[in-house]
Amino acid sequence: MSDAPLTGPDPIAQFKAWFEVASQGGVPEPTAMTVATATADGIPNARMLLLKGVDARGFVFYTNLDSPKVAELQANPRAALCFYWNQIKRQVRVNGPVERVTDAEADAYFATRPRLSQIGAWASHQSQPMADHFELERNCAVVALRFGLGAVTRPPNWSGFRVVPESIEFWHEKPFRLHERVRFTRTPGGWTSQWIFP
Questions:
Q1: Structure pTM?
Q2: Looking at 78, 177, 181, 183, which residue is catalytic?
């Protein structure tokens, strides 16, 4: 792992470079991220999700559209992300508005999921009460019988969101708490960066 300071004008390229270091540096699940949302009246919520895509447009995750997080995103369409890669002592924070991915994007990603994960997306009424855990297993059995050996299509209440970054902050742990911290901010003319006191 290089200890070289942050350089370069493109925070998406910087993120991909750090993600590659995390992937090669022993981080068990480098795509894991905290996703923070808030209700219309500002009550925050946070949970762990997996990053499923990143490019110049933003950071993508997928979810059940009936989930509380989606209700919050509809009422207050902004999110914050936090990646913490302890093994390489780095953190990335992302903040910005959200947008739904296209149906074509959601279909394409859903088709890559393991079959049992596809079935689970149909079977789970996310965040709703269950009589017991066997209710989920029974639902999975019903869905499996419904699709048989055929392809499992994407449920209508399952899709993705893209966090369109307005700011991306990189933090690199250093001895004696003299950490490196750089914040990129999107402006009409492109990205600007600024060193921040740790």
A1: 0.92
A2: 177
